[in-house]
Every structure is written in C-alpha cells, then in structure tokens.
Write a structure and sequence with these properties.
Helices cover 42% and strands 21% of the residues. The protein has 315 residues and is an alpha+beta fold. A 6-stranded antiparallel beta sheet has the order 1-2-11-10-7-8. It has a 5-stranded antiparallel beta sheet with strand order 3-4-5-6-9, covered by helices on one side.
Length: 315
C-alpha cells in the first residue's frame, strides 16, 4: 500500500497548510480526492501504481474535474496538458460555478513546482469553490481568495488568477486580473487580447499594493468567445525557441464547436513544442452566445408588455 501511504501523506500536508477561512470547503474537496486516490491504489496495486508522483497526479485530476458543458446559459470547454506524464504536476487550476450573482469562472497558476505548487493551487481552488457563492462583488471574491493564500504558513505562496463574472442575461462580462495573462477575445473570426490593465497583484500578494483590485468590463456581442489560458501555453517554444503565437493560431484553428476547437488548438500546441511542454498548460473557453440570445428575449418581452397592456379594452 505504498501508493495509499503516499496519498495520505500528500493530503495531510496540504490540509495542514490550508487556511481556516475556507477549511470546510477545502477539506470536502480533499476527502473526495482522497477517496478516489484510495480506490485507484487498490485497483492498480498489482500493476505497479506505487509512485508518489502518480498519486499526486491523481489527486490533482480529481480536483480539476471537467466543467459542465452548459453553465447558466454559457457553453464551456477545458483542456489541461501536463508538462511531463507520470511526474508531479504543476499548479495550473481552474473552476466554474453558477452563483446567485451569475456565472463565475477562474483560471490560475500557482507559484513553483511539484507538491508546493499543488498545495497552493488546491487552496486557491478550495477558496474559489467555497467563496464564489457568498461574495456579492467579484473584487471582494478576489480579496478573500488573496487572504486565504496570504495566510498560508511556510513562506510566500501566491498564484496568478483571472476571475470572470457574467450576470444572468447580461451583455457584458466583469473581469479581475490578478497578475495573470489577459484573456483572448474571439470575435467575428479575429482573436485579440483583452486590455485589462492595470492588473492587480497575484493572489497572496495584494498587501504589496494599496490599490489592490480593479474590475474591468468587457461588452459582449453575438457569438463572442473568451479563451483563458496559463503561461504554459504562451511560453511554449518551438525548435527555434520562439514562443507559441496563440492569437495567430487561434484565428487559424477556430471552430464554432468549443470541443473541436480546443482539441485542434491543443494538438497544435503539442506539435509546435515538439511534444515537450516546459510547463503545464491549461485552456478554458467560454462561449457567450446563449447569454446574448437570452438578453434579447428579455428585452423583447419587456418592450411588448406595455403594448399589450395598451391594447386592452377599458372596463
């Protein structure tokens, strides 16, 4: 049971580092991940599944569950590529939730490598899952997540993050950029980086800047998509050591179907880097088409109501 012992040690370490403010949410996630790891160990014990790195990889895969295909009128798709199969994965993390304030999504990249980065990433994800349903303002959600990471013991831990909120029926998206690469807006066959400057500091480092959190608004039009990513994508290099031209490749490979598009983009990224990514890479696509359609329907109903009332006979 070497694999099970390694899993227990990893989970114990991460739980010990977690902030009390979100301990309940994180522990629930850890319990679910622990159960999955234990089952996997028992199933694969006779097949050599005893490496701690493989156990850690299983833990994070349980944490990075597939997102719903449809979420509050949005369509989503996600892809995650580890830099090296069978080794300790890095700190890329993502999440989404339909909340009383609308759909909220985030993508992040924790500092460092290995177990330390996984611990930071898991705390970040646990904070998002626990707080997204309660914090009314997106900036307040970012602040609370920052407090969680700033309160972790054992040194300076931080994570870049991009948080997005789309209120039900809204024709715009709110963004908070915490030291993370800007999203890519895909509109009418063109791909351009969204200007969300000036960014806030990474989560865990808000104390370094007084004006710590700014919210930016991006108007939406029909069939808009936002592509969120981690720097493992844009910092991938080819044989000439040139960086991956994300916007250029997105414009060439774009498909209206989110899964088809991300499959093609992921395959292109791996081919570009000759199958050797230097860092983990995560891609999260958000399609706003249905949100726009719903907003138009609501407006149409509101405009028609007075007319219907006006044509009613007076009794």
């Amino acid at each position: 049971m070497a694999g099970a012992g390694a899993a227990a040690a990893i989970l114990a370490t991460l739980a010990w580092k977690s902030s009390d403010a979100v301990m309940a949410g994180i522990c629930m996630a850890l319990i679910a991940a622990s159960a999955a790891v234990s089952a996997a160990v028992l199933r694969r014990q006779g097949r050599g599944f005893r490496e701690p790195a493989a156990v850690a990889d299983t833990v994070q895969r349980e944490m990075l569950r597939p997102l719903p295909v449809r979420l509050g009128g949005l369509r989503t798709a996600v892809r995650y590529e580890a830099a090296q199969s069978g080794t300790l994965v890095g700190g890329d993390v993502y999440g989404a939730a339909h909340t009383p304030f609308g759909v909220r999504l985030f993508i992040g990249d924790a500092m460092g490598k290995g177990l330390s980065a996984v611990g930071t990433a898991m705390d970040t994800l646990g904070a998002f899952r626990n707080l997204a349903q309660r914090e009314k303002r997106l900036s307040a959600l970012a602040q609370r997540m920052d407090t969680v990471l700033a309160g972790r013991g054992g040194g300076v831990d931080f994570a870049t993050a991009l948080l997005i909120e789309v209120a039900d029926g809204s024709e715009s998206a709110e963004l908070v950029c915490c030291g993370h690469p800007p999203p890519l807006l895909i509109r009418a066959g063109r791909a351009t980086f969204v200007d969300v400057l000036p960014p806030s500091p990474p989560l865990g480092l808000f104390g370094l800047q007084e004006d710590w959190c700014r919210v930016n608004t991006v108007p939406l039009t029909d069939n808009d998509q936002l592509l969120l990513y981690t720097d493992g994508v844009t910092e991938a290099r080819d044989a000439k050591r040139d960086f991956y031209p994300l916007a250029e490749r997105v414009a060439v490979l774009h498909d209206e179907d989110p899964d088809t598009f991300l499959d093609a983009l992921t395959a292109d990224l791996i081919q570009y880097s000759m199958g050797k990514l230097d860092d983990d890479a995560a891609l999260l696509l958000i399609d706003f088409g249905e949100i726009r359609a719903r907003a138009r329907q609501v407006r149409a109903e509101c405009c028609q109501s007075p007319q219907r009332s006006a044509t009613r006979p007076i009794r």
